[in-house]
């Protein structure tokens, strides 16, 4: 499982690098993988509109797919507070999609909001795995952010 997780997180980091940079938001990559190890959908920050989050983008592309055995990989902790779409946090969207497992590289630093994504997901019964060996890469994509 760990090798597969590394493979998909490397892909998520590469996707994060495609994000148009913003001084007010993170650059994040996300991939949804089904139980058979096939990619269902992928996204990155601002890939389909100026405010879309990576996880949100991937989830929108996977609408209609049964994700109840899928894993969502994200380079950053899924958000739990959101300025532009307060009713559509990535944490809430992941729970609504019934995704049972989330793998992240980096906990969200408190430069914009205090993120409680991991705590909320865990409390809801989602298995959350952190791959700290990818945190430096996930952070490096965000070297443009003031305050980081
Ligand atoms: Zn988000």
Automatic annotation (TrEMBL):
Domain of life of the organism encoding this protein: Bacteria
Occurrences of domain CMP/dCMP-type deaminase (ranges): 3-128
PROSITE patterns membership: CYT_DCMP_DEAMINASES_2
Pfam family, one: dCMP_cyt_deam_1
PANTHER family reported for this sequence: CYTOSINE DEAMINASE FAMILY MEMBER, RIBOFLAVIN BIOSYNTHESIS PROTEIN PYRD, CHLOROPLASTIC
Protein name according to UniProt: Deaminase
């Amino acid at each position: 499982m760990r090798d597969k997780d590394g493979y998909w997180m490397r892909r998520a980091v590469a996707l994060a690098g495609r994000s148009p940079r913003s001084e007010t938001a993170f650059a994040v990559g996300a991939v949804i993988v089904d139980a058979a190890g096939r990619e269902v959908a992928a996204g990155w920050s601002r890939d389909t509109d100026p405010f879309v989050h990576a996880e949100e983008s991937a989830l929108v592309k996977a609408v209609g797919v049964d994700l109840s055995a899928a894993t969502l990989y994200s380079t950053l902790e899924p958000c739990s507070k959101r300025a532009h779409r307060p009713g559509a946090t990535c944490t809430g969207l992941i729970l609504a999609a019934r995704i049972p497992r989330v793998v992240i590289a980096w906990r969200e630093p408190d430069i914009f909001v205090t993120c409680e994504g991991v705590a909320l997901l865990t409390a809801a019964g989602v298995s959350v795995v952190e791959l700290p060996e990818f945190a430096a890469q996930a952070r490096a994509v965000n070297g443009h952010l003031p305050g980081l």
